């Protein structure tokens, strides 16, 4: 299911909280600078990384299954082969969209999200799309 630009723009505009699976402490990695950019635009970032206690000033969770509150976007910065298990947990939260970052694709994850009736984006950078849609 392809998400149109107008739908994507609407989803990004109405979203407030982003769970970032694979969020990183390293400012040179997309898993850090992309969520940092989104945080600078007013989004609340919930980092998910089992190896850190805090990233970008937010308490880190060890896995998606630890999420308790409503999440608007599940953003994934993990290899494609890990995405199926991640989105199985993520769709339970009924996010507005599940987003696999640039360079990440998973047909299995896409099927799970599609069955759940949730919009799905893969192999696109959320920061680049935000800048393109909100110049």
Provide structural commentary.
By secondary structure, the chain is α/β, with parallel strands linked by helices. It has one domain (14-133): 3-Layer(aba) Sandwich (Rossmann fold). It is 37% helix and 18% strand. The protein is built from 5 helices and 7 strands. The chain has helices at 5-14, 30-40, 80-90, 107-116, 126-133; strands at residues 17-21, 44-48, 54-55, 58-59, 73-76, 97-100, 120-121. It has a 5-stranded parallel beta sheet with strand order 2-1-5-6-7, with helices on both faces. A two-stranded antiparallel ribbon has the order 3-4. Helix 3 (80-90) runs parallel beside helix 4. This is CoA-binding protein.
What labels describe this entry?
135 residues, alpha/beta, Rossmann fold, 5-stranded parallel beta sheet, 37% helix
User: What is the count of distinct domains?
Assistant: 1
Which runs of at least 5 residues are low in confidence (pLDDT < 50)?
none
In percent, how much strand structure appears in the residues? 15-25%
Q: Report the biggest beta sheet as strand number plus sense, adding barrel if it closes.
A: 5 strands, parallel
The rough form would be described as: globular
Alpha plus pi helix count: 5
Domain CoA-binding: 11-104
Protein name: CoA-binding protein
InterPro entries: CoA-bd, NAD(P)-bd_dom_sf
Pfam families: CoA_binding_2
């Amino acid at each position: 299911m392809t998400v149109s630009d107008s739908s994507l723009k609407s989803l990004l505009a109405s979203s407030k909280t982003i769970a970032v699976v694979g969020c990183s402490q390293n400012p040179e990695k997309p898993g850090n600078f992309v969520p940092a950019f989104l945080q600078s635009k007013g989004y609340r970032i919930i980092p998910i990384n089992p190896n850190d206690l805090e990233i970008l000033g937010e308490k880190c969770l060890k896995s998606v299954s630890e999420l308790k509150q409503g999440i608007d976007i599940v953003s994934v910065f993990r290899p494609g082969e890990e995405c199926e298990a991640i989105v199985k947990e993520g769709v339970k939260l009924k996010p507005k969209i599940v987003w696999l970052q640039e360079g990440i694709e998973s047909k299995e994850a896409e099927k799970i999200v599609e069955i759940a009736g949730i919009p799905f984006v893969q192999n696109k950078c959320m920061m680049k799309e935000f800048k393109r849609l909100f110049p």
